[in-house]
Amino acid sequence: MKRRLLYASTLFFGTVVLDALTKALAEAHLRDGPIFLGADWLALRLAYNYGVAFSFFEGIPYWALGAGAIVLLAVVLWNLRALLQTRLGATALALVAAGGLSNAVDRLADGKVTDMISVWLWPVFNVADIAITVGVGLLLLGSRGGKTVPKEPAATEEGASS
To answer: Taking residues 114-141, what's their average pLDDT?
Structure first.
């Protein structure tokens, strides 16, 4: 358990640092316009999200969105803490926690989340968004692993003779 906790902590802090670094680099180098990465559908482009996913709830005060996100994240992590028993669960929780906390802290700092990865028609996103998406995907994948189909009870002689 200690090894998984160390692994999850390292992944968590590494993701938080990578997200903060990429947001700082985007702020410093993308103000003059996008940088296309070999194709017209893939670019680094500075954008801000004043709401939550896909800019929903833009009118809500940013401090309420940031604080609400942190509370929601704490509730989810508390309720899913048993997933730390497996490497897949620990990975999923670390990624979701890192992404959620990174975006919440970014929002609390200045009222917006910094995004910079633009893929075709998809909304612009950031490293924290990727971590959340991959983490949720792993949670879904992991939730299928422990499910078993209940077996039907064997027919009794009384039921078989009628």
So the answer is: 93
Active site residue 115: yes
Instruction: Please tell me the total number of residues recorded for the chain in this structure.
Output: 162
What is the Cα–Cα distance from 17 to 21, expressed in whole angstroms?
A: 6
Which pLDDT score, from 0 to 100, does residue 162 have?
A: 46
40 flagged as catalytic: no
pLDDT at 10: 96
Query: Which amino acid makes up residue 18?
Result: L
CA dihedral over 82, 88, 90, 95, signed as positive or negative: negative
Q: Are strands 42-49 and 113-119 parallel, antiparallel or unpaired?
A: antiparallel
Among 19, 32, 106, 115, the active-site one is 115
Question: DSSP letter at 111?
Answer: S
Asked if 102 and 15 count as a contact pair (C-beta separation under 8 A), the reply is yes
Instruction: For residues 86-105, give the mean pLDDT.
Output: 91
Tokens (6 digits) for 113: 């989340």
pTM for this model (two decimals): 0.77
Nearest of 93, 78, 82 to residue 134 by alpha carbon: 93
CA atoms lying within 13 Å on the CB side of residue 88: 11
